[in-house]
Design brief:
A: alpha+beta; CPE0013-like fold; 2 domains; 2 helices; B: alpha/beta; 3 domains; 27 strands; CPE0013-like_sf (chain A)
Chain lengths: 124, 419
């Protein structure tokens, strides 16, 4: 039997969770303190996922960048590819918070949404 | 002279939380004074996730968290003065401010809520020897460049200090294509949250060098490298362990200092350990009618806690306006062995209905320890804690019943007893 020790990152408590594995199957999970932690532990030993938060270039807005995130966590190994994909994007102001800027990024089934309002730059 | 029931200084999470709470409790003649062009404060540049799990039961980024409050401020049509700098506050609650439209003007406030936040410790505060080249910046400045202005401050980076902003920037710079060569921490533990060590360093194989520090910065016009060394138990560098790391940028994440210039001017008593005002259980400073919340009071780990504290300050300010003041503190609150500080620093249980929340940080990492509260020789509380670490703030709620056992002469002391 193999024991994987992981630190939960769902919230700042940082619970230390022990997962017992046998032949790729989860035998037991101990040390979590909420349902989200249990879910995280299951994913972490099978397919680790992370939310990607970054920014894309913006034109004509009050800021030169627009902050964005994946709506849900995506497989960890896709993070780099997603960053490269988002580097190609440029949005035009105005944009509203929560707008989808890329649907189903790289076939992950997860949309990329904006995390702030971007106002049109005032011409003074 | 303008007149407001409550003047809130600072439009970050603390100021926003206080304003929304005051309005919802029926005090509408209020104003937020903010020196920046926008509301939201530091949350605007914290584009990473992890905010709002307690407050909204979902995981948000900084700008999203701020927007929830900004939307309410707009919906309620709360007065906001942007690009306005407060120059002075007085003990009789006159606020002097300036902006480019009105010039210098004064406001008479029923109550004042201090919500100015904190700033970063700069290089000067930690005295690293060496030259003064370009390429040395604080983590928050780097964060602003990368997330708001669109500049990458360097390509090969060493980060000194493992506070949360430093850890977040290690990941952020890596994602943007820079190489973070190491995070160097003088203490034997990180002062950041465990989750940030996992998802910001371990995920990207960035080494965390504990009990190490930067002993020299190299380069004339631009940083060319740093010399790092191990430190002994007195945090003195062991020069035999010195090694050179080439890099073009050194980022400092070496602590935050509450921004209390205005408070000092007003004669408000400050706590030398927290750097914030000394407050009572109402979050009232030593000057009646002036309250403090958020990072100007004590540096928090979680914005959710800042919001909770801001609500409390707003409710206290409302009571002050309506009742004219509170009973004088009669019990002192002290940090004992193993505890660095406790907020509030003094209390009077007659001012409260049910309980008082105390927030504190330990001096060290403790496993399976007892967190105790004593008044003289008498225990008021003993609580088992699996893990205490300086990077994570401790909350202790004490009921009025328990606090009634406290002796006025002895005060109460929080301490850690090793198990």
């Amino acid at each position: 039997m193999e024991v994987k020790e992981i630190t939960c990152i769902v919230c700042p408590l940082g619970c230390r969770i022990k997962v017992e594995m046998e032949g790729g199957e989860i035998k037991s999970i101990k040390g979590y303190s909420c349902p989200k932690g249990l879910e995280y532990a299951k994913n972490e030993v099978t397919m680790p996922k992370r939310m990607v938060t970054t920014s894309v270039r913006a034109k004509g807005g009050h800021l030169p960048l627009l902050s964005v995130r994946t709506k849900e966590p995506v497989p960890k190994e896709k993070i780099h590819e997603i960053m490269l994909e988002l580097a190609k994007i440029e949005v035009k102001a105005p944009v509203k918070i929560g707008d989808v800027i890329v649907k189903n990024i790289l076939g992950t089934g997860v949309d990329v949404i904006t995390t702030r309002n971007l106002y049109k730059k005032e011409v003074s | 002279m303008l007149n407001y029931d409550i003047v809130i200084i600072g439009g970050g999470p603390a100021g926003l939380g206080a304003a929304v709470e005051a309005y919802e409790k029926g005090v509408k003649n209020i104003v937020i004074i903010e020196r920046d062009k926008y509301l939201g404060g530091i949350l605007e540049q914290c584009i990473h996730n992890g905010f709002g799990l307690q407050e909204f039961k979902e995981e948000l980024t900084g700008p999203e968290y701020a927007q929830r409050f900004i939307d309410k401020v707009e919906e309620y049509d709360i007065n906001v003065m942007l690009e306005t700098m407060v120059l002075e506050i007085t003990p009789d609650r006159i606020v002097k401010a300036v902006n480019s439209k009105e010039g210098v003007f004064t406001i008479k406030a029923g109550a004042i809520i201090l919500a100015m936040g904190c700033r970063e410790r700069p290089r000067g505060a930690i005295m690293i020897p060496g030259t003064r080249p370009a390429g040395i910046l604080t983590a928050g400045t780097a964060q602003r460049y990368v997330n708001m202005e669109g500049y990458l401050p360097g390509k090969e980076i060493v980060i000194l200090g493992s506070g949360d902003v430093g850890l977040i920037m290690a990941r952020r710079l890596t994602l943007e294509g820079a190489k973070v060569k190491a995070v160097v921490e003088i203490m034997p533990y990180s002062s950041g949250l465990t989750r940030n060590i996992v998802q910001c360093l371990e995920d990207f194989d960035i080494p965390l060098l504990l009990s190490h520090t930067v002993v020299e910065i190299h380069g004339k016009d631009r940083v060319e490298g740093v010399t790092i060394a191990k430190v002994d138990e007195n945090r003195e560098p062991i020069m035999e362990t010195a090694q050179y790391i080439s890099c073009d940028t050194l980022i400092l994440s070496v602590g935050l200092i509450p921004e209390n210039e205005l408070s000092k001017q007003a004669g408000i008593e400050l706590d030398p350990v927290t750097g914030g005002p000394v407050v009572n259980e109402m979050l009232e400073t030593s000057v009646p009618g002036i309250f403090a919340c958020g990072n100007v009071l004590q540096v928090h780990d979680l914005v959710d806690n800042v919001t909770a504290e801001a609500r409390m300050a707003a409710n206290s300010a409302i009571r002050f306006i309506r009742e004219g003041g509170f009973k004088k503190s009669n019990i002192s609150v002290k940090a004992g062995k193993g505890i660095r500080y406790v907020v509030p620093q003094r209390i009077n249980v007659d001012n409260i209905d049910k309980r008082i929340k105390f927030r504190m940080r330990p001096t060290d990492v403790y496993n399976n320890a007892i967190l105790a509260v004593k008044s003289g020789d008498r225990y008021l509380l003993r609580q088992k804690r699996i893990r205490l670490t300086p990077g994570e703030m401790i909350d202790v709620n004490l009921s009025k019943e328990i606090l009634k056992n406290a002796d006025e002469k002895e005060g109460i002391v929080f301490l850690v007893e090793e198990g």
